[in-house]
């Protein structure tokens, strides 16, 4: 029976999703234990501090902003990078069908945005991600640092957005295909998280905290 | 019952006028996007058509398809056309029973060899042949035998087309659809649970008019009726586009007729004509009466997850799988922690104080 | 595998902690740290991207402390970290990083590459890949007590000299003094005016202070070369000296790294809290000013347009950012802030021991362009700073570039504007 799209959709909804969840859970737990099971940074430095507590939390938030004087040095990567992260979060968390899905899986529910807004944000995010890629290939430092993993992770991040957009707009592919490929690409992304730099979705927060904690003890709001 | 009466005459006897026939032809032609001239052609063809001989086999099925195709609140042209065909074998409808019924089938197959239309509803079990038999003949043998001399095979309903309910996991009887068995001639799938009556009759009308099978999609469904999704033609679609959804079956959104996506509507992945032809003579269809589409005309629709979870919602991994994964993660994780600490301790123990002489 | 390489790997393993693991796993290769590093911005050489300078350390971390790395290692899928790789990285880890920490201020994921270069130097030094001149300085620091080989005899001579100049006595080895002042060799040899300035300020404020004849040296080459055991030895001398005199607070002078070495690294190096407080001289002077214990004549403010160069270890890495500005505004009327200042200042190019690395001279001279541009932007001919190493670097750069700029010490500037209360009252009358 030539019902491959349906078969694929069923597979990604069933075994595919289970496999992705298992690998994500297993990988993420091991990585987090591996990282935070290490010895904590030395705290004796605090003994000379004037401050009772650090402000790691402040740094977690402050690092969402562009440090003074840096925007003009790298406008493309800053603007596209920020827009793409915000856009990704908005599309993921505030698109009604996603909320319905998360609601079905977790029981939580919240208000989403009208689809016209999501559509705009998705286009903006797709565009931003292309700018990010152009920067990666065009900016000297970024190109120098980039290895295969960087490009692979870009692709794995881009595909869910692209297939989601195709499904949402009902263009290019029949919806069943688009939905199946969308879920498949999300599962590939889930699997990649623990084993690639996508770990920064978690460790960016701990890193900012470590950074902010040590600097704030010295009286510098980093 | 095996007469060669003209089809149109049989209709006239039931009180159907030429105007009614023309109207039916016009609607069918429009749905199938046929050129304007084909309405008359179709009407003429129906006028001339011999009552075609139809052999109808029912296997693993619930008779819902037959119910759908034969029962209507008012006698419609479709139902009458159906009644007017030379239905030479249909073990639910025919008067004859037992050996006489089987004899009728064999006779029709012989008399109309190469010309009769074989309609199948129900899936075919490939497991134990005894799972489903008619007059002592197992479904697989009967299908193979009957399909041999058929001009065309029409699989009516999702069970015949794709295996349907009998094939739903864990598929205890090893059921399959018709096209898994009949591979040497075209099988036209008219899936649905049940399919829309207009569609099967429209298909017959087309077949009688043009003497050929209409254009089919990759699942062998006539594109004319299965070319677009319910979602694409749904009158509630604007609400989806605006992001207005009913959250429960009795909230404000539901009362205002908002989109039923969040309540599990399968409209986006379901190819059928429900949203345009509708049911019960064009009165309504599931979404119009406030319930999401179940996707009944799609392959494996029983196995696609809870009907009230969105079409995209993956199946939640079982608690057992989650628990095993968590235990595994903890075991490996603590192992890694222990190994890392051991390595650091070894490094610490091996540390000899660094002096300036070591720097050179 | 050579013994020194094995030791280096061991030492590096000791350096790995949760923050290092978090940092390495968070890097997205965005390259923005490069835009914060003057070695990259002024040369455009991608080898100088801060996170790239850490490649050997990242390699070791992944190979030894991640499951994926261990598995890869077992199956021979990833090359092992080699002695050659460490040797190749010597220039990147020493010559092109001043440990200024500016990269840590901009990293979007919050990484602290500067701190990790400091850690990587621990392994590099043991492996024998620290630059020769830095090794020499460290040996002098340990054997002679001072990186520049300055003995107490030299200091004593300078003290006698300046005591006659200013007519005040510099207290040495005073038991039970509140404060003990440390001095960098550079101040003793090149900028003894600093000692005079502190003496005058403390005299007016009536501060109980002293210099220790056994522990006057502030410099700690151990933290620059990255040898904690040696750094600990040097900190221990300071502790002994301070404890012998029973002082409550130790003041580090106008020297960047010695402040970091004692106040922030000291407790970690010793493995226990220090038996005294550590304060930078600017913090102490600012406090005296705020307490009204020293006075400046508001009518004779310095009217020269001037700017302040934040020494990295004192500002960004030390948190002494507001104090110098309060003092400057109290004594000068045309203080102009550079666009990037405070925690975002640009390094002079010679911190973190780089000024002592001879082979790095051409590179250092190249990257001075940044400071030159900054000074020209604010349009001043006077740059104030609070680190003698920065002063040396600035003066050298200014000379190399034939700029008409004078570099002065903030403590000295403050001392020059002291007036006694009696004098103020008399002037008003």
Architecture overview:
The complex is a heterotrimer of chains A (222), B (360) and C (429). With 222 residues, chain A is mostly helical. Chain A has a single domain, classed as Fumarate Reductase Cytochrome B subunit. Chain A has 9 helices and no strands. In chain A, helix 1 (4-36) packs parallel to helix 8 and helix 7 (148-169) packs antiparallel against helix 8 (175-192). The mean pLDDT of chain A is 93. In chain B, helix 2 packs across helix 3 and helix 5 (77-84) crosses helix 11. The radius of gyration of chain B is 29 Å and the shape is elongated. With 360 residues, chain B is α/β, with parallel strands linked by helices. In chain B, strand 5 (133-134) and strand 6 (137-138) form a beta hairpin. Helices cover 42% and strands 9% of the residues of chain B. The model of chain B has no long low-confidence stretch (mean pLDDT 87). Chain B folds into 3 domains: 7-226, Rossmann fold; 230-303, Cytochrome-c3 hydrogenase, C-terminal domain (Cytochrome-c3 Hydrogenase, Chain A, domain 2, Irregular); 323-359. The model of chain C has no long low-confidence stretch (mean pLDDT 94). Chain C is 52% helix and 7% strand. Chain C is of the alpha/beta class and 429 residues long. Chain C folds into 3 domains: 3-130, Fumarate Reductase Iron-sulfur Protein, Chain B, domain 2 (Orthogonal Bundle), CATH 1.10.1060; 143-289, Up-down Bundle (Glutathione S-transferase Yfyf (Class Pi), Chain A, domain 2); 290-416, 3-Layer(aba) Sandwich (Rossmann fold), CATH 3.40.50. Chain C has helices at 3-15, 18-26, 38-41, 55-65, 67-74, 83-95, 102-106, 113-127, 132-143, 152-166, 185-189, 193-205, 221-225, 228-245, 256-264, 266-270, 281-290, 322-331, 361-367, 369-378, 388-400, 410-416, 421-428, and strands spanning 179-181, 209-211, 249-252, 277-280, 306-309, 335-336, 382-385, 406-409. In chain C, helix 21 (388-400) links the parallel strand 7 (382-385) and strand 8 (406-409). Chains in contact: A-B, A-C, B-C. Chains A and C meet through helix 1, helix 3, helix 6 and helix 9 of A and helix 2, helix 7 and helix 16 of C.
């Amino acid at each position: 029976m030539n019902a491959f799209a349906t078969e694929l959709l069923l597979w990604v909804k069933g075994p595919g999703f289970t496999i992705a969840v298992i690998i994500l859970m297993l990988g993420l737990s091991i990585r987090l234990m591996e990282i935070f099971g290490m010895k904590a940074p030395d705290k004796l430095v605090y003994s000379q501090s004037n401050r009772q507590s650090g402000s790691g939390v402040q740094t977690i938030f402050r690092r969402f902003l562009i440090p003074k004087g840096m925007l003009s040095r790298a406008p493309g990567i800053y603007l596209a990078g920020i827009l793409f992260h915000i856009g990704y979060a908005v599309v993921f968390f505030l698109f009604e069908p996603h909320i319905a899905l998360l609601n079905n899986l977790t029981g939580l529910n919240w208000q989403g945005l009208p689809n016209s807004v999501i559509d705009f944000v998705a286009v903006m995010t797709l565009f931003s991600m292309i700018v990010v890629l152009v920067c990666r290939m065009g900016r000297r430092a970024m190109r120098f640092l980039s290895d295969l993993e960087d490009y692979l992770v870009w692709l794995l991040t881009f595909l869910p957005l692209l297939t989601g957009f195709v499904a949402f707009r009902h263009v290019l592919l029949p919806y069943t295909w688009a939905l199946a490929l969308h879920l498949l690409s999300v599962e590939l992304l889930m699997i990649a998280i623990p084993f690639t730099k996508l770990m920064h979705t978690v460790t960016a927060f701990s890193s900012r905290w470590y950074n902010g904690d040590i600097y704030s003890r010295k009286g510098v709001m980093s | 019952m095996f007469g060669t009466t003209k089809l149109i005459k049989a209709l006239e006897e039931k009180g159907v006028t030429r105007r009614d026939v023309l109207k039916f032809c016009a609607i069918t032609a429009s749905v199938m996007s046929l050129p304007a001239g084909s309405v008359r052609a179709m009407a003429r063809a129906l006028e001339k058509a011999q009552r075609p001989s139809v052999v109808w086999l029912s296997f693993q099925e619930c008779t819902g398809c037959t119910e759908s195709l034969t029962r209507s609140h008012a006698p419609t042209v479709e139902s009458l056309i159906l009644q007017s065909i030379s239905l030479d074998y249909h073990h639910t409808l025919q008067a004859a029973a037992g050996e006489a019924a089987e004899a009728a089938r064999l006779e029709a197959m012989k008399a109309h060899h190469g010309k009769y239309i074989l309609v199948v509803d129900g899936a075919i079990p490939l497991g134990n042949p005894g799972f489903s038999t008619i007059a002592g003949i197992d479904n697989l043998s009967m299908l193979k035998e009957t399909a041999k001399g058929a001009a065309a095979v029409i699989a009516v309903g999702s069970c015949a087309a794709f295996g349907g309910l009998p094939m739903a996991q864990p598929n205890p009887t090893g059921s399959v659809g018709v096209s898994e068995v009949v591979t040497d001639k075209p099988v036209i799938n008219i899936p649905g649970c049940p399919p829309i009556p207009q569609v099967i009759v429209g298909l017959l009308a087309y077949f009688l008019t043009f003497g050929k099978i209409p254009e089919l999609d990759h699942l062998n469904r006539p594109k004319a009726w299965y070319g677009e999704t319910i979602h694409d033609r749904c009158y509630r679609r604007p609400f989806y586009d605006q992001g207005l959804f009913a959250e429960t079956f009795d909230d404000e959104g539901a009362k205002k007729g908002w989109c039923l996506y969040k309540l599990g509507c399968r409209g986006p992945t379901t190819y059928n004509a429900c949203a345009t032809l509708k049911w019960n003579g064009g009165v309504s269809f599931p979404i119009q009466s406030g319930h999401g589409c179940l996707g009944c005309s799609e392959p494996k629709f029983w196995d696609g997850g809870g009907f009230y979870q969105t079409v995209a919602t993956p199946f939640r991994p079982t608690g057992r799988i989650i628990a095993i994964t968590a235990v595994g993660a903890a075991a490996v994780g603590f192992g890694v922690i222990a190994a890392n600490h051991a390595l650091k301790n070894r490094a610490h123990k091996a540390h000899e104080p660094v002096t300036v002489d070591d720097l050179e | 595998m050579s013994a020194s390489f094995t030791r280096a790997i061991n030492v590096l393993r000791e350096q790995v902690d949760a923050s290092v693991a978090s940092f390495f796993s968070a890097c997205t290769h965005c390259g923005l740290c490069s835009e914060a590093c003057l070695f990259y911005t002024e040369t455009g050489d991608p080898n100088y991207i801060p996170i790239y300078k850490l490649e050997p350390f990242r390699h070791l971390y992944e190979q030894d402390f991640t499951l994926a790395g261990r598995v890869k290692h077992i199956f021979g899928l990833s090359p092992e970290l080699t002695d050659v790789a460490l040797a190749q990285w010597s220039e990147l880890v020493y010559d092109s990083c001043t440990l200024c920490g500016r990269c840590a201020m901009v990293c979007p994921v919050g990484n602290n590459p500067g701190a990790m270069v400091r850690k990587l130097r621990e392994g590099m030094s043991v492996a024998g890949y620290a630059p020769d001149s830095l090794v020499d300085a460290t040996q002098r620091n340990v054997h002679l007590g001072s990186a520049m080989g300055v003995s107490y005899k030299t200091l004593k001579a300078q003290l006698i000299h300046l005591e006659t100049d200013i007519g005040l006595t510099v207290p040495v080895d005073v038991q039970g003094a509140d404060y003990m002042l440390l001095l960098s060799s550079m101040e003793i040899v090149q900028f003894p005016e600093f000692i005079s300035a502190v003496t005058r300020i403390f005299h007016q404020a009536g501060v109980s202070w002293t210099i220790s004849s056994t522990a006057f040296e502030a410099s700690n080459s151990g933290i620059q070369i990255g040898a904690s055991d040696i750094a600990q030895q040097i900190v221990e001398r300071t502790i002994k000296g301070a404890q012998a005199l029973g002082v409550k607070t130790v003041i580090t002078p106008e020297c960047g790294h010695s402040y970091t070495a004692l106040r922030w690294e000291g407790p970690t190096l010793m493995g226990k809290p220090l038996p005294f407080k550590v304060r930078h001289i600017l913090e102490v002077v600012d406090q005296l000013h705020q307490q009204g214990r020293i006075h400046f004549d508001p009518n004779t403010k310095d009217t020269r347009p001037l700017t302040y160069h934040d020494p990295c270890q004192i500002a960004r890495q030390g948190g002494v950012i507001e104090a110098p500005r309060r003092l400057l505004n109290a004594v000068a009327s045309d203080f102009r802030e550079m666009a990037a200042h405070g925690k975002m200042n640009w390094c002079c190019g010679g911190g973190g021991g780089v000024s002592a690395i001879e082979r790095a001279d051409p590179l250092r001279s190249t990257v001075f362009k940044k400071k030159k541009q900054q000074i020209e932007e604010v349009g001043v001919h006077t740059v104030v700073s609070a680190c003698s190493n920065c002063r040396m670097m600035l003066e050298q750069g200014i000379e190399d570039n034939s700029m008409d700029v004078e570099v002065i010490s903030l403590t000295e500037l403050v001392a020059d504007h002291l007036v006694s209360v009696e004098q103020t009252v008399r002037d008003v009358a």
